[in-house]
Amino acid sequence: MSVTNGVAYDEGNIFARILRGEIPAKPVFENEFAFAFHDINPQAPVHVLVIPKAAYVSMADFSAKAPAEFQAGFWRSVGEVARQLGLEGPGYRLLVNAGTDSHQEVPHLHVHIFGGRPLGPMLVRHD
Ligand code: 5GP
Fold it and tell me: CB of 11 closer than 6 A to ligand 1?
C-alpha cells in the first residue's frame, strides 16, 4: 500500500498511535517538535525514524502547512538525532518517501536515518 499526497490526515495511522503511546516503540529522542524511534524492520545497522509531533501526512503537507518555526525545529531535531546516534563521523543517509511513486506506506511524515555501515548506491536501478 502507498499513500498519495493531498489525502486527509488519518488519526488512526500507526505513527499517530505511537505518538499517543497506544503502540510501543523503542525511543531514541524526543523534544517538543519530534519523536525518534527505531524502525521495526531495520534496513541498516542503524535505522531510526524521526516524526513530527503534529499531524502532517507527508513532506508535501508539512512543507506547505507547518509553521516556519516548527519546520526549523523539526529539521534541527533530525540533525540532533543523527548526532546523538554517533553518525556524524562515519556518515549517514536521510530518506523521506512522499506519495505514491516513493511508496510511502505510513501517512504521517517520517524521516528515515540510516547508518552503521557503508550504504551503497543511493537508489536501486530498474532499467
Ligand atoms: P515508508 O515506506 O512509509 O517510508 O516507511 C515506513 C517505515 O515504517 C518502514 O520502514 C517500516 O518498517 C516502519 N514501520 C511500520 N510500522 C511500524 C511500527 O509499528 N513500528 C515501527 N517502529 N516502525 C514501523
Answer: no
